[in-house]
Specification:
This protein is α+β, with helices and mostly antiparallel strands and 636 residues long. Helices cover 25% and strands 31% of the residues. The chain has eight helices and 34 strands. It is globular. Bound molecules: CU-O-CU linkage and copper (II) ion (CU). Copper (II) ion (CU) binds next to loops. The site of copper (II) ion has 7 residues, from loops.
Length: 636
């Protein structure tokens, strides 16, 4: 329903533009019939948009407001102009002026809303321009037929030039600076007093390496970024970028508490690379974001990451240099941190299932490298844990049927007292992880992930169960049982931020783009959320767009407080990547206990590459690194 209203409104706004042009053209040319019809269509469209705004009140004022605030004044202006000036014949110059002016107001308002341009300014300009037009046409001679041709030609030329100039202007205005620093720029202090935010001096992110005291690491790995051809089960070859020649990259398995050391070696052809430890709250200097916490590692160079794996769970790693390109090409892998003292049963099956789409967005979806259905042999009675990871940007639905299952962890954090479900159906957002467990029965168990799948059976040759009934969709807000949390919905928050997500048609870095904006801005212009060490922070995500946005905050775990205004009632729901669906509103909270400059972005990496990125900054922390076309760093 939300999607329907959202896109209907957008289409109507798009229709308003050409109709307004026709109305203007017809009115100034004295084509009274056409102008009357176009005018009526414009008014009808405006009424429909008001209706859309009223329907959206159900999702709250955040959703309805922008439509109503834009469209109602435009509609009122149009109606007033109509009543005051326009006569039924439409032949009077004043009437033509009114139509022209009204068309102007409506079209500018429609365009401004789609492009997300500052509301008040544009409305003001539109009204002034429309009045001027109306006045000018009032003063035209009544019978200008002789000059008609010329007039028409001039009108057309002015129109074309105006549209072209506006397009070029908008495109140029969207160009990004060749160099930008995350420790400069606008900040949002969330209503708290942030003393002493510094753009220079203070602590550099490079000093935030954690306190491992230089002791010897217990787990060492080397990840070598290199091009390689990988083969899908269909036989198709993919020219991939890999870690260690395999895709997905090697699974790194460590124990909770281990000091981990990973040496990154770059052997890519002419591209920089980094490694980001997605979901692991590493010290800031180890976060692997090109241009924010380090420079991208150039071909031939190396970089050493060191961090303690203090929380058990399912994580993943990936390049954070040109992430939208490099992750898709294969520069990612799983990181599993086994719990410190629970020894895994020797015979337990523990499998990480990475879902990835190779090629472009409509490429081949696989589990590992298999687009088809894989078969595994598991003796009856064995405990099985599946670690489901979605490395794509779009959410994917995983289903498990054939055995009672429990969803035991979300984003690396255990669910408290997960109930047994007859089967599981889980929407795994981009970058998110869900762990499920079951005991292998005598009959097969089928895992499906929108296409690819795996069948587990004692014999190892069972096919997928196509008759299996779809389990109900898991709602993590109501699953498991409550447990103590270090803070809750009623806590005192030192800072509160609201991030409104919108869908805008326009330009980004000089090219036409659908932008998903955060509070009407795109990277690098979204004000940094400023906090001080120790603050308790609340963030509200309001998704007013028609797409899913898996919002990923680096370096912290967020506790979900409410979804669409309803408090969570199940297990504490901790996330590092929260899928915010169209029309959804989430309130989350986290403790600012890991100083640094942290990226906070949409993990639909296409969206991030179109500007859906902001940062969380701690007072007094600065970065010497730069991003932009004039640098070697392109974290998105
Ligand atoms: Cu998985 Cu900023 O990334
Ligand atoms: Cu997004």
């Amino acid at each position: 329903m939300f999607l329907w209203v959202h896109y209907a409104d957008m289409v109507i706004a798009l229709v308003q533009l050409p109709v307004a042009v026709v109305a203007w053209w017809a009115a100034t040319g004295r084509h009274s019939r056409t102008s009357a019809v176009a005018f009526a269509v414009l008014l009808g469209a405006a009424v429909l948009r008001v209706a859309a705004g009223l329907v959206l009140l159900r999702w709250g004022w955040e959703f309805a407001g922008p439509r109503l605030v834009w469209v109602v004044p435009a509609l009122l202006a149009a109606a007033t102009a109509h009543l005051v000036w326009l006569r039924p014949t439409g032949r009077r110059p004043g009437g033509a002026g009114a139509v022209a002016g009204t068309a102007g107001i409506v079209s500018v308002a429609a365009m401004a809303q789609l492009a997300g341009v500052g509301a008040a300014a544009v409305t003001g300009v539109a009204i002034v321009a429309a009045s001027a037009m109306g006045y000018a046409y009032r003063r035209l001679p009544r019978r200008p037929e002789r000059a008609g041709r010329w007039r028409a030609a001039v009108r057309a030329a002015v129109g074309v030039v105006a549209v072209a100039a506006a397009t070029v202007g908008l495109s140029m205005a969207s160009a990004l600076p060749a160099r930008s620093s995350m420790s400069g720029g606008a900040v949002d202090d969330g209503g708290g007093a942030v003393a002493g935010h510094q753009h220079s001096g203070g602590i550099s992110v490079t000093e935030l390496t954690g306190a491992d005291g230089g002791e010897a690491a217990v787990r060492r790995f080397t990840l070598t970024a290199q091009a390689a051809t990988v083969r899908l089960d269909s036989g198709a070859q993919v020219a991939a970028w890999t870690f260690n020649g395999v895709a997905p990259g090697p699974q790194l398995v460590v124990r909770q508490g281990d000091l981990v050391e990973v040496t990154l070696v770059n052997r890519l052809p002419g591209a920089g690379v980094t490694v980001h430890w997605h979901g692991v709250d590493v010290p800031n200097a180890m976060d692997g974001v090109a241009g924010v916490t380090q420079d991208a590692v150039a071909p031939g160079a190396t970089f050493v990451y060191r961090f303690r794996a203090s929380r058990a769970g399912t994580y993943w790693y990936h390049s954070h240099e040109m992430a939208s390109v490099q992750v898709r090409r294969g520069l990612f892998g799983a990181l599993v941190v086994l719990p410190r003292d629970v020894p895994a049963r020797q015979d337990a099956v523990d499998e990480t299932v990475l879902r990835h789409t190779w090629g472009d967005e409509d490429g081949v979806a696989t589990l590992g490298l298999a687009a088809g259905v894989q078969r595994r042999s598991v003796p009856a009675g064995r405990p099985v844990r599946l670690r489901l990871v979605n490395s794509d940007g779009k959410p994917a639905t995983f289903t498990v049927t054939g055995a009672p299952v429990r969803v035991v962890a979300i984003d690396g954090t255990d669910v408290h007292e997960p109930g047994v479900l007859p089967g599981a159906r889980i929407l795994v957002g981009g970058g998110a992880r869900y762990d499920v467990e079951f005991t292998m029965p005598d009959a097969p168990v089928t895992l499906r992930a929108e296409g690819p799948g795996i069948v587990y059976s004692p014999s190892g040759d069972a096919g997928p169960d196509r008759a299996a009934k779809e389990p109900a969709l898991l709602d993590p807000a109501r699953y498991g049982t409550p447990a103590a949390t270090p803070f809750a919905a009623g806590s005192h928050f030192d800072r509160r931020f609201v991030l409104r997500i919108d869908e805008r048609l326009g330009f980004y870095d000089g090219r036409p783009a659908v932008r998903y904006t955060l509070n009407d801005a795109s990277f690098p212009d979204v004000p940094m959320l400023m906090v001080a060490d120790g603050d308790l922070v609340e963030v509200t995500y309001v998704n007013r767009s028609g797409q899913h946005h898996p919002m990923h905050l680096h370096g912290h775990h967020m506790l979900v407080l409410s979804r669409d205004g309803r408090a969570t009632t199940g297990s504490p729901w901790w996330v590092d990547t929260l899928d915010v669906g169209p029309g959804e509103t989430f309130r989350v909270a986290f403790r600012a206990d890991n100083p640094g400059l942290w990226m906070d972005h949409c993990h639909d990496l296409e969206h991030a590459a179109n500007g859906m990125i902001l940062h969380l900054g701690y007072t007094g922390v600065t970065s010497p690194f730069l991003t932009g076309s004039g640098t070697a760093n392109h974290p998105e």
